[in-house]
Write a structure and sequence with these properties.
Radius of gyration: 19 Å
Order of helices and strands: HHHHHHHHH
Number of strands: 0
Structural class: mainly alpha
Number of helices: 9
Shape: globular
Helix content: over 70%
Largest sheet: none
Number of domains: 1
Strand content: under 5%
Length: 226
Amino acid sequence: MSQAQVAARPVGEVRINTFLAQVYLLMALGLAVTGFVASWASQNFVLVLQTMRPGVAFGLFIVEIILVVFLSAAATKMSPTLAFLAFLFYAAVTGLTFASLFAVYAETRIAQVFWVTAGVFLVTSVVGMVLKKDLSSAGYVLFMMLLGWTIAWLFSWFFPGFNLLLTYIGIALFIGLTAYDTQRIKEIGKQIEDHPARGGLIVIGALVLYLDFINLFLLLLRASNR
């Protein structure tokens, strides 16, 4: 191995680690915004009641879906600053929808489940980062499972007896998705170097991990109430 190759290796690793650090930092910032907005909104009883109204709740849900689709498709084409602000706006909207959780669960329960989720997410992310086995082949399977789980979850509104089973299946599914997404983001970090869309890719990576965390948190919170 030449001296140039030896010298280049640490630089590549530094770039990968920097990319991953930026993705996780932005994800953590998004979670902080969600938590702050949810806590602030929960102090306003009228606002909480408004967010629990079917029409308002459905409207916020549609806004969230639109923002996720928009960010996923356009983040790499936008300026990094605009993509960053759009992600934080999405996190704030999610926080507004989370205000209703304080009307259903005790604040201590929410805090406990959050830290449990953080621990599970951390361990799973580390596994995905250090695991030598390529999980790319599992991506299609996980996506199809997610699609099937989502459809089943919609039907569970009409057949509530399946809720508990779907909750535990969902927890296992999002643990698997967290490991897969972590490895995928790491592979992206190996390839982009100084890619002009680097800022947008950081936002997309943060969004993917944010969604994994939020869904895992909601499922664990639901399971904790059994």
